[in-house]
Specification:
The chain is α+β, with helices and mostly antiparallel strands. The chain is about 20% helix and about 30% strand. It has one helix at about 5-20, and strands at about 20-25, 30-35, 35-40, 45-50, 55-60.
Length: about 80
C-alpha cells in the first residue's frame, strides 16, 4: 500500500490543477490579472489555465461577428423590395 505522505501531496496537486482549468466559449475572451496586473493579451476561446492564488480571470464578451455590406449598385438583401 502506498505511503500516505506520498499520496496526499499528489492528490492535492491533481485537485489544484483540475480546478484551475477554465473553458471559454467561442465568443468570450478572458482578461487575466496576474498578481494584480493585466497580462498583455486576453486569453481564449477554448481551454485555459488560471492558477487560483496568482491569477484572476475577468471574462468579457467580444464582438467577433463579421458584418457584411451590400456591393455598390446592388440593393441590400436584408431590406424588403419596395415598389414605387
Amino acid at each position: 500500500m502506498p505511503d500516505l505522505t506520498i499520496l496526499l501531496p499528489i492528490l492535492i496537486v491533481a485537485i489544484y490543477l483540475l480546478s484551475s482549468i477554465k473553458i471559454l466559449a467561442e465568443y468570450e475572451r478572458g482578461v487575466i490579472f496576474r498578481l494584480g496586473r493585466v497580462l498583455p493579451h486576453p486569453k481564449g476561446p477554448g481551454v485555459i489555465l488560471v492558477f487560483a492564488p496568482i491569477d484572476r480571470i475577468s471574462p468579457h464578451l467580444a464582438a467577433n461577428r463579421s458584418h457584411g455590406s451590400a456591393a455598390p449598385g446592388r440593393r441590400d438583401p436584408r431590406q424588403r423590395h419596395r415598389q414605387s
